[in-house]
Amino acid sequence: MSYFGLFSTEHFLSIGGYILFYLFILFISQFFSKKGFAVVISCAVLIMKIAELVIRNGVYGESIQQLIPIHLCNITLMLCIITMIFPSKSLFQIIYYWSIGAVAAILFPDGRVAFPNFVGISFFATHFFILFTVVYQMISLGYRPTFKGFIGSFVCINIFAGIVYKINEILGTNYMYINYKPTFSSPLDFFGPWPHYIIIVEIIYIVLGLLLYFPFKKRHFKYTNVY
């Protein structure tokens, strides 16, 4: 596999290309039924993710225990697929605030596989799908983030992190980078040793979450019928 450099021309072109691609998908979604469009695109993304995991295991030799989809973005992706097919205001709240992780992954990807490798395509396509789901449901379904949703997302992410920490201890893995820092370069390198960087990430999540909520503060939205 060939790799591209972090913040290289190819990295920025990849980000720009996927933004344009999903804007196009958002545009053409207006010409189909909401239900039909949601099912088709969600199934396509799910198949792509499964194919990625199969390739990483069968072709690149990554072990099954390294491919369990319990990184935060993988869980968020699964929630996106579910809520696209079965819309849920509650799940939208979690996805909206957890999408912070997708943005971080896009900016600081783990295993920066160069285009046109399928694993690299799947990485960006699935992470951008998380952001697409947020934008799509805000535009098409009228969903909006709430402060209660922010609190709920914060509680859920901490409960989930605690569970993943124990799983990592059992399997010798490091999902969510909760047991120790990732081996590749990332902003966590500047946040001190374990567990200090976890505390800093929690603070950053709170700050960014509140910033994401602020534009919608003191506004009341009426959820429309979905389908």
Q: What overall form do the CA principal axes indicate? A: globular
Q: How many domains make up the coordinates?
A: 1
Counted by DSSP, the helix tally is: 7
Distance between the termini: 44 Å
Share of β-strand residues: under 5%
Q: Which bin fits the share of residues in helices?
A: 55-70%
Uncertain runs are none
Element-by-element helix/strand order: HHHHHHH
The helix-and-strand class reads mainly alpha
Q: What's the gyration radius in Å? A: 18 Å
> Sheet bearing the most strands, described?
none
- The average pLDDT score comes to 90
- Strand element count: 0
Brief write-up:
The chain is an all-alpha fold and 227 residues long.
Report on the structure:
This protein has one domain (9-216). The protein has seven helices and no strands. The chain has helices at residues 9-28, 34-58, 72-85, 89-107, 118-140, 147-171, 196-213. The longest helix is centred in the N-terminal third of the chain and has 25 residues, at 34-58. It is globular and about 50 Å long. 25% of the residues are buried.
Please supply descriptive tags for the structure shown above:
227 residues, single chain, globular
